[in-house]
Amino acid sequence: MIFSLIWSILGMAAGVYIALELVIPTIDFGQEWLSYGRLRTLHTNAVIFGFGVTALMGTAFYSVQRTCHVELFSPRLAWFCIIAWQFTVLAGGISLLAGWNAGKEYAELEWPIDILIAVIWVCFGVVFFGTIAKRKVKPIYVSNWFYGALIIVIAMLHIVNSLAIPVTISKSYSLFAGAQDAVVQWWYGHNAVGFLLTGGFLGMLYYFLPKQADRPIWSYRLSIIAFWAFTYSYIWAGPHHLHYNAIPDWVQTLGMVMSIILLAPSWATMVNAVMTVSGAPQKLKTDHSLKFIVLALAFYGLATFEGPMMAIKSVNAVSHFTDWTVGHVHSGALGWNALITFGTFYFLVPRLFNTQLYSKRLADIHFWLAISGTMLYVLSMWGAGISQGLLWLALGDLGELSYGFREIMASMQPYYILRVIAGLVFLSGAVIMIYNFFRTIAGRKTATVQIPAPSTAPQQPVTA
Amino acid sequence: MPLVSINAVIRRPSALLLLPEETRSFAAILKKEIWWFSLIPPSFLFIGTYFFGWRIGAEEPLYFEWPVLLSICIFYYILLFGGLLILSLLSRWMAPTYATTKDLGSHLTVIVTSAAPLFLGSVAHLYPHIIVNSLVFIPMLLWSLWVLYSTLPELLKTDPQRGMLHASSLVGIVMVAGVSLIGMSVVLWTLGIGPNIGV
Question: Which of A310, B140, B161, B186 could form a disulfide with A281 if both were Cys (CB 3.0 to 4.6 A apart)?
Fold first, then answer.
């Protein structure tokens, strides 16, 4: 959790800095490592792999013990995963700043780092599934299905998409070429979003939401149906990133159709979660973490609706390559991933240290900064994206393009300034949260807890 | 009602509860209040655009012929009027889930009250510059959110916790509705209805 928080600040700060570079380009001071191209990849890698994956590893190890009623399969291997992952992300970040780049979005890291990732991920799987294998209850709770899918699918995606021929230690060439490379890349790229940023965090949701609400999930059956529908439909959706590109038209259409179908399991999960929390409103009075999760659900609903809509080809014709996509990504990343992680951390920190949160008022302030920052970000990028789409495509009376690149970029300045403000607002909230946590745990030792024994009642899915 | 809403926004939400029941009925608000309340932003937009043009970042401001501008403002009006009604109906639809009142008038009151800061902020439309409007609408949006979360429990007769859940659901609906409108607009553009774009 501590590592995850550190990466969150570093990653978000890098994001704010590159947002500022789009307003004041000279703040790279002529340094290559400070250039937009290098810092942007650092930003995405730090928040996804540093902040996100570290949080997922930590919460997976925490929850799998409680839902299986056993200790981790190999605590030492679990520690290896966590520590080695930090070094890998750090090495990856440094390599990106140095200019090593495989040229694939969200898979920019070069082959030596890719191998490290694969090894650690396999170890992650060994610990997780080893723990599942020695569980004391027969049912496998739904959060573990999502965490399990995260581990298996990400391993598959990462290994296949990273297949490459190394030339030097810092350069390799993909085993795939041309349109095939693009299809494989976005099969990876979209499912990394699906099984890591959506599925993995749904695992987090399905464990921590019932715990915080102190009641079972509203419909366990719906959660299982949603899991399988989600798993089946997500894997086909990648080609919507390649609309109007040099891949077969039917592949594009398939990606579009499966993306639209994806709305059903996504919203089924949202409804399930909303109904769960709506049955325990009294918990909101005492539990600040639940507020973050409620808000995260609102943005989850938005992002999972917006995604399929943007996958429709006639919408994509305008939205593709614009900042609307950036806004969509951040409604998910800030509104869903970050907020549910913050909510989980607000739940965990007092319990891990057997104490009370230092300041509920600071948590409230963080809540309002988070909602303000996210909304401002999304709205500014909606404005920028629609303007870009229209200006790029606008035609004059003779059919010529009406606006030049320079003119369009200049028109983006107001939106980009708003984005910087939004980023600063969101980042300041995260800093306040870390200060709150620091004061909460200062001078305290972690609590020692026993793994709860299984219930003697007839076995049924429980939240432990 | 709008004036009372504004008063409630600025001072205290319970001011709305002091109104006689019949003035807070759905029909009364619909007939006597919303139709002109929803006229405020389009009117400001018409005046501002006619004299100053849209200054959305392009080097030259965008001017419209007045019939085009009028049609934009009429659609804007329909959107606001319809949006307030649909939101109140959706809010009423969610009432059993969050144990809030089933009185449709109360739900419309919440929606109108929460929208009041944004409607007030539409004065910025008198000078349709992106920065000016952003500077006005950002605080108005936050104010609107604050009003929604703080007034909803009292107006819909529920506890603050259920009120928070109901308000968050409304925020989610508004966001989804917002992006749906953008999406539908884009589909119309690609079908050739609207601006002349090369798709």
Answer: B161
Give pLDDT tens digits for A390-410.
888 888 888 888 888 888 888
* A171-174 vs A164-168, strand pairing mode: antiparallel
Q: Looking at the predicted complex, does its ipTM rise above 0.85?
A: no
A/B interface, count of CB pairs below 8 Å: 130
Encode A173-199 in three state secondary structure. EECCCHHHHHHHHHHHHHHHHHHHHHH
Mean pLDDT on A275-299: 84
User: Residues of A numbered 364-403 whose beta carbons fall under 8 angstroms of chain B's beta carbons: which are they?
Assistant: 371-372, 375-376, 378-380, 382-383, 386-387, 389-391, 393-395, 399, 401, 403
Q: Report the alpha-carbon distance of residue A310 to residue B179 in Å, rounded.
A: 10
With beta carbons less than 8 A apart as the criterion, state whether A309 and B186 touch. Answer: no
Phi-psi region of A244 (alpha: psi -120 to 50; beta: other; left: phi over 0): left
Inter-chain CB proximity B197 and A318 less than 8 Å: yes
Taking an 8 Å cut-off on Cβ atoms, the answer to whether B199 and A415 are in contact is no
| Residue A160 tokens, joined | 């296949």
Helix axis angle for A323-332 and A288-311, nearest 10°, is 150
Q: Which two tokens stand for residue A187?
A: 């099969």
Q: What percent of chain A has pLDDT over 70?
A: 98
Q: Do B180 and A309 touch (CB under 8 A)?
A: yes
A391 contacts A408 by C-beta, under 8 angstroms: yes
Residue with tokens 């501008």: B69
Compute the C-alpha angle A192/A198/A203, nearest 5°.
115
For the cut 90, the answer to whether the pLDDT of residue B42 exceeds it is yes
Q: Kindly tell me the sign of the dihedral angle through the C-alpha atoms of A211, A216, A222, A224.
A: positive
Q: Which distant-in-sequence residues (6+ apart) come within 8 Å of B117 by Cβ? A: B9, B140, B141, B143, B144, B147
Of A302, A383, A391, the CB nearest to B175: A302
Which among B179, B196, B197 has CB closest to A305? B179
From CA A117, how far away is CA A109, in angstroms rounded? 10
Structure tokens at A84: 């080695």
What's the whole-model pTM score?
Answer: 0.89
Distance CA A87, CA A410 (A): 40
Q: Where are the alpha helices (DSSP H) in A22-74?
A: 36-45, 54-68
- The neighbouring-strand residues paired with A171 are A168
Which residue, among A215, A305, A405, would best test binding to B if mutated, counting the most B CBs under 10 Å from its CB? Answer: A305
Q: Which of A107, A113, A145, A112 is nearest to A129 (CA)?
A: A145
